[in-house]
Write a structure and sequence with these properties.
Number of strands: 0
Radius of gyration: 17 Å
Structural class: mainly alpha
Distance between the termini: 46 Å
């Protein structure tokens, strides 16, 4: 049996190409990294970019009261279990 392995950089390059084809805005991580002028998080372990998430919630839910946006934001960033599948189910079905 022949096994093929992909390096992390190959997967990253393929993913970036795919997102670009889908017309996503691709940013240089060095520009938004912790400590940079345009930093969007204090440390790399912060995987959710809070300002972007809030902006997206407002953009995707026009006319929703600010309190509802904040409640949605809190539910999304609060991990109730280590399972992404369980968290997704909890957000969408409760």
């Amino acid at each position: 049996m022949i096994q093929s392995f992909f390096s992390e950089s190959e997967i990253e390059e393929a993913s970036l190409k795919w997102f670009k084809e889908l017309e996503y805005l691709i940013l240089d991580v060095g520009k938004i990294a912790p400590g940079e002028l345009l930093a969007e998080r204090e440390k790399y372990e912060e995987v959710i970019l809070h300002r972007r998430l809030r902006d997206a919630l407002v953009r995707l839910n026009p006319g929703i009261p600010a309190e509802a946006i904040e409640e949605a934001f809190r539910k999304i960033i609060r991990a109730e279990s280590p399972s992404l599948l369980q968290n997704n189910h909890a957000i969408h079905w409760t």
